[in-house]
Amino acid sequence: VQLVESGGGSVQPGGSLRLSCVASRFTVSGYAVVWFRQVPGKERELVARVDRGAATTVYADSVKGRFTISRDDAKNTVYLQMNSLKPGDTAVYYCNRFPEPMRWGQGTQVIVSS
User: Fold this and answer.
1) Which residues of the chain have pLDDT under 70?
2) Backbone angles phi, psi at 28, to 5 degrees
3) CA-CA distances (angstroms) from residue 106 to 2, 54, 64, 66?
4) Tens digits of per-residue pLDDT, 82-95?
């Protein structure tokens, strides 16, 4: 049972990336899913959350209007579309589920730099 993140990379400021969080050996439709990010030496911070059935989405103030979280339960996948990226978005991005959060995975690295 795990969640696997992918889609990170290096982009210039103003660019876009789409992160994927794929659930393995469980059905993600039964859970809310969150994206967190972490910079070395800092606490992991919540970026976005999508509730079951996408009834509710929540965003950190720092990403509102630029990031969009969505889910495709048929593909057992949650996405984070990131537009207008800034250097401050540079971090390792992780996903997890609630309730019953799992051990954090490897995450996917996002680097925003000119």
Assistant:
1) none
2) -70, -20
3) 11, 25, 25, 24
4) 999 999 999 999 99
